[in-house]
Amino acid sequence: MVTFESLNFSPAIPEIFLAVMGMILLIFGVFRGDKGFRLVCWFTVFSFALAAVLLLHLADISSLAFGGMFVTESFAVVMKVIVLTGASIAVLMSMQYAQREKIARFEYPVLMLFSTLGMMLMLSANDLMALYLAIELQSLPLYVLAALNRDNLKSSEAGVKYFTLGALSSGLLLYGCSMVYGFSGTTNFNDIAIALSAMETPSAGLVTGLVFILAGLAFKVSAVPFHMWTPDVYEGAPSSVTAFFAMVPKVAAMGLLVRVTMGAFGGIAEQWQQVLWLMAAASALLGAFAALRQTNIKRLMAYSSIGHMGYALIGLTAASIDGVRGLMLYMTIYMFMSAGVFAVILLMVRKGQQVEEIDDLAGLAKYNPVMAVCLAVLLFSMAGIPPLAGFFGKLFVFQAAISGGFYWLAIIGVLSSVVAAYYYLRIIRIMYFDTAENELDRVEDTPSLFMMRGTAFLAVIFALIIWPLFHVLHEAVERLLAI
Amino acid sequence: MVEALIFYMFAFVLIASAVMVVVSRNPVHSVLFLVMAFFNTAGLFVLLGAEFIAMMLVIVYVGAVAVLFLFVVMMLEIGKVSMKEGMVTYLPVGLFVGLVLLAELVFVYLGWEMAEGAADRRLFPTPDASEVANTHALGQIIYTHNVYLFQISGLILLVAMIGAIVLSLRTRPGVRKQDIADQLDRRREDAVELHKVESGAGIK
Amino acid sequence: MAEFFSEYMLPVLWIAAKIMMIVLPLLGAVAYLTYAERKVLAAMQLRQGPMMVGPFGLLQPLADGLKLFSKEMIFPQQSSKIVFVLAPMLTFTLSLVAWAVIPFDEGLVLADINVGILYLFAISSLGVYGILMAGWASNSRYAFLGGLRSAAQMVSYEVSIGFVIVSVMLVTGSMNLSEIVLAERVWWVDLLLFPMFVIFVISILAETNRAPFDLPEGESELVGGYNVEYSAMTFALFFLGEYANMILMSAIAVILFLGGWLPPFGIEFAWLSWVPGIVWFGLKTASVLFIFLWARATLPRYRYDQLMRLGWKVFLPFTLVWLVVIAGALLAGDALPVM
Question: What is the mean pLDDT of chain B?
């Protein structure tokens, strides 16, 4: 007999705190109006920080809550802290941009907060129903945010496109969930794993269900062949929202993917490895080749992020401690690098107008060397040039693939990163060797400037701080896979 | 026997009105038939002993959703002809899809096989109606077992509401609104001025 | 054959007889409610009211009824005939079927179902269809406007009525109307429910389209609202339905808040408990009905935006918050009903 008291709320305290803060900020915003935008932003960041503190208090406990639907252990805590960091950065960077672009409505940070809450719930989901609802809570605010600049045709288009395709992916996901439930008799991840181990060969229905679930999740991380929404949504959505899209939800979705594949379906790894192999290779290749001809920097970043998801998935395909650790490291690095690049994109203003063509950066090195250097470092890092941060991300992922016996996958990964390096270098060439026709303004956007410099600095010194980070991630993954 | 009779009555009217929703020439009639279909579904739920769900169906769908639906259809005045355009072209496709679905249903029904002991492993077995009223049983499942899912659903709906407001609310300048507090704050001195008017002089 | 007769026919006949025993007095009550309304209004406006037909005009309702029954039914051109006729029938039927679950005295109820209060709520939420259908089928602008106004108004106020009902269910722990009447309540819980009672009474004024919320009829602007085009029998059905609904809503208010058939204020004098419960029930219902008439005589009609404002911006937030307050108080005072 389940009673209300036996549900064990305590592991979810950070999430509960965040939900309550969201509602308080909403009420505050309603009374204060859009004048309170900056204040609500600051309070949101403050809540993220407090939630992270609360999380770290729970770091050593691994426990189930709500009758097994909610799980928390060091893996979830680490991933949630990364997500919270990314979300805080995104909110901070948005503040000035949103006011410049006249989308500074108090709901903006509140929606980001609820989306972040959804991501935290995703990372703790231990049940198919909880998984679905968490994903919906995560994506619904994103649809709204994409269309936030509602008088702009492209923004509305981005919102509608994202929403329609998101609904489609939810449909796929739910279909998969229903099949898994039908063939295993349970929605709980632990029980699914038990049911799987009881079968000699996994039933066809279960595998089909798994494939559909993977398709639904692949949409969320924008892996090929479920990537179509990415370029349009990235381009159409307001840049600060795109920054958020690029940085945070993918980390959460990757974490969830790890929990579903390694946790619930860990017993039939050879089944999903084939699917992930294909997705990883296709994403890496498409990300590299499709980006070559882009002229809009946001579209370029969209293809670049598809490619990066491919590399990260290479780690997961290995289905080993090394692989998952590599994936987590990759996602962490990717998040910070995207933060830096998007900080630059947010700073691309000419005569008070936001611009986003790559050619607008021409000659940047002449009149704004700091910005040019930062962007160059970040792009080098993304391309995977040693000894910058991105190099380590790729290194560990490929290493895991090779030790897992996926040589071809590693080769495809390396080759496509060589191709990808070309378009990163192209931007650098434009910045340093082309001449400026019109200079960009100098924008006093302290948070974005700080993020740009900070992430570039991080990319440079990453080799020095990698080992402690590595240790934390390793421990988290070990705990996750030990259960 | 009486139950069977009532069941067939509800079932027949339900299907008939569902058909009429599609066939009816007038959109308003369609909506009214839809309401009838909902109502008969509620009747079927009562027969199943699920009185709470039956009432909720009437309150939520008939009492609120369909009313708004009817509202919109009445206001739009969709032409009678335009609704039915393409009926002939799409009819074969529709029939085909319907047939395929029907065939699938038949196959599933014929080939249905429960795994051993599956009935005992159900997450939420139906409690005996004589022991627990079904409102209590539902409450137990929704608010105790699944309180977590319930709360997330609540948050999702909240976000949907915020989203709808953010994307559609426009504050128009120059709209005169009644401000009750303002009206109540008004004092006699603000509104009335007393003058002693001399005969034939007037005021200013 | 004999078995069929004793097993099916007799119970059915018995139920039919019971239904008649409820419906006939109800129709009588409706007739004399119209009389009471005219008399009360007259008294408040220093007039005499109906005086000519029978002693003190007591036969006036009968005369009115006869007049309506003997008139000709008129169908407007291009009206949707079937819907046009269905609408008053629906309104009238709905106002009668709701009485099935009303307990007049302990055990004196046609169908003592588990979810009685939800049934009432469901039936009253259907009432809007009669009006919408009438407004649309008449193919007349006044009627259509009246119908739309009425629909918006009823849907809006149902929300706060819903919360009021939920708070009563919370306090009594039951959805069965008899159990709600008999539930033991602590005095401070009654005190907490009082604001809900006030809101309920105001909301049922809106729900039944009565003054000061009678915009759907609004004779000064809409001529007569949704029933402009109706005449004779069809009009009579609307009329009967509206007044039966008033009595029904008052009866619900009595059951939810005023202790149903029990003597008032929980007084336990011996001579009070000799009075049959149904008399108390009737008296209490009549006193709530008096509020309806009183409001009509004294309050000016609300403007449409004011009506919506009251419903959505005052009642809805207040009932929501107050529901939480009641729940919290019950939890803190350990007064939650035990299952």
Answer: 83
Domain borders along chain B are 1-78, 132-166
User: B142 vs chain A: nearest CA distance in angstroms?
Assistant: 11
Confidence of residue B84 (pLDDT cuts 50, 70, 90): low
Of B118, B145, B155, the CB nearest to A67: B145
Partners of B144 on chain A (C-beta within 8 Å) are: 2-4, 7
Tell me the average pLDDT of chain A.
89
> What one-letter code names the amino acid at C324?
V
Q: Using a CB-CB distance cutoff of 8 angstroms, which residues of chain B are in contact with residue A185?
A: 115, 118, 121
User: Which residue is it, tokens 């406990």?
Assistant: A61
- Looking at chain C from residue 151 to 170, which residues have their Cβ under 8 Å from any Cβ of chain B? 151-152, 155, 158, 162
A228 φ, ψ (degrees, to nearest 5): -60, -30
Chain C adjacent subunits, 3+ CB pairs under 8 A: B
pLDDT over 80 at C273, yes or no = no
**Distance from C-alpha of C8 to C-alpha of A358, rounded to nearest angstrom:** 85
CB contact under 8 A, A147 and B167: yes
| Cβ <8 Å between B159 and A140 | yes
DSSP string, C163-231: HHHHHHHHHH----HHHHHH----HHHHHHHHHHHHHHHHHHHHHTT-TTS-TTT-HHHHTTGGGTT--
- Rounded CA gap, A364 and A370, in Å? 9
Chains C and A touch (3+ CB pairs under 8 A): no
Task: Check B74 against C133: CB less than 8 A apart.
Answer: no
Nearest-neighbour CA in chain A from B119: distance (Å): 10
Q: What is the pLDDT of residues C173-232, one digit of tens each?
A: 888 888 888 887 777 888 888 999 999 999 988 888 887 888 777 666 766 677 778 878
In the predicted structure, residue A48 carries a pLDDT above the cut 90 = yes
Domain encompassing residue A234: 4-482
The fold of the B1-78 domain, in CATH, is Four Helix Bundle (Hemerythrin (Met), subunit A) (1.20.120)
Is the pLDDT reported for residue C123 higher than 80? yes
pLDDT higher than 80, residue B80: no
Task: Give the chain A residue nearest B170 (alpha carbons).
Answer: A150
* CA-closest candidate to residue C227, choices C150, C121, C120, C172: C150
Question: Do residues A229 and A217 make contact, with C-beta atoms less than 8 angstroms apart?
Answer: no
pLDDT at A122: 94
Weakest mean pLDDT among A182-196, A320-334, B102-116, C42-56:
B102-116
pTM: 0.87
CA-based nearest distance B105→chain A, Å = 16
H or E stretch including A63? strand A63-65
Chain B residues in contact with C122 (beta carbon < 8 A): 55, 58-59, 62-63
Q: Percent of chain A at pLDDT above 70?
A: 99
**What whole-number distance in Å separates Cα of residue C31 and Cα of residue C25?**
10
Contact A69/B148, CB-based, under 8 Å?
yes
Count of domains for chain A? 1
Half-sphere exposure of residue A54: CA atoms within 13 angstroms, side-chain side: 18
pLDDT tens-digit profile of B90-108?
888 888 998 999 998 898 8
Gap from B193 CA to chain A (nearest CA, Å): 36
Q: How far is Cα A146 from Cα A246, in angstroms, rounded to an integer?
A: 12
Q: What is the pLDDT of residue C48?
A: 86
Q: List the subunits that have 3+ CB pairs under 8 angstroms with A.
A: B
Q: Check pLDDT > 60 for residue B81.
A: no
Mean pLDDT of C279-305: 89
Candidates C192, C199, C195, C200; CA nearest to C172 is C192
